[in-house]
Amino acid sequence: MVLRGYVPTSEETLQTLAALRLQSLNSDFSTHAPFPRLEELFPPHVLHARLPPPPHRPPAKCRGARLRAGLLAGGLWGQALAKQRAERDQRLRGRLREEGASTMAAIVEKWKLLQGMGRPEAMAAYVALVREWPGFGSTLFDVDLHAVRPWLGRALGQPWHWVALTPLSPQSPMSAGPQRLWLGIGAKAVSLYKPGEPEPLDSFCYGRISSFGASDSSTFRLSVEDRDLLFETSQVDEIAQLLNTYLASAGARRPQPQEPLTSPLSSEPTVLPQGLCPAAAPWQHRPPVGSSHS
């Protein structure tokens, strides 16, 4: 999750995590120790984010302009453009190598400071750093979020998956229509994160969730109190199975009558028993554990 960018934290902390991983794998620093590649220690997307964006090309304004551009692309002008792109790509690759070397040097310097730390201590320090993120322990899924007003479906007499998609509310931070978000499934709550942001946009304990289900292979529905949330994702089955697992676990800890759970592959929503969460308070930030890093 760290390497895929699913633990939002500072670059310095990511370097410290990489150094702790090296200490765990190789013990104290040595020039003869086997050295993993940088992408096995540090999120590659962080390095790519440092590179300048590609130049913006204004679109052609008319058919004649597009035709002239096409003719030019087939001649000397096209060859010149191809040469410019190749030179630019070479410069970007060189810049990426420089950024990678600089980051690796910083990681090695932090690794040297860990001399004498045993493998169990390095692993404990690594986990302590990651635990500082409030979403620690959740499984994150990339989703596109839509919100549906439930009363629209009832008024029009249409199934929920036919209702036009509308924002949550004018005041909601998720009110701009479909958005790429992280859906975090945890043991006590379901949370929505803006990618890269440490705090959730919203969080729902299981006591606030009335039902969930898969509409098709790419659409998942989550009903929370007075609103329905639709998620477009390629991991519908995984999300449903994980929710079923946590629900069954919560039901085992708090015995109470409940309806049988439906299969994750079913299009019928699973109705959740109420009372699995003592309160509907937002997710509270946990204090740092075992480390002063942020």
From TrEMBL:
Residues 1-257 form the FERM domain. Gene3D superfamilies: 1.20.80.10, Pleckstrin-homology domain (PH domain)/Phosphotyrosine-binding domain (PTB) (2.30.29.30). Residues 259-269 have a biased composition (Polar residues). Residues 251-294 are annotated as: Disordered. PROSITE patterns: FERM_3. SUPFAM superfamilies: PH domain-like, Second domain of FERM. This is MYO10 protein. InterPro entries: Actin_motor_Myosin, FERM/acyl-CoA-bd_prot_sf, FERM_2, FERM_central, FERM_domain, IRS_PTB, PH-like_dom_sf.
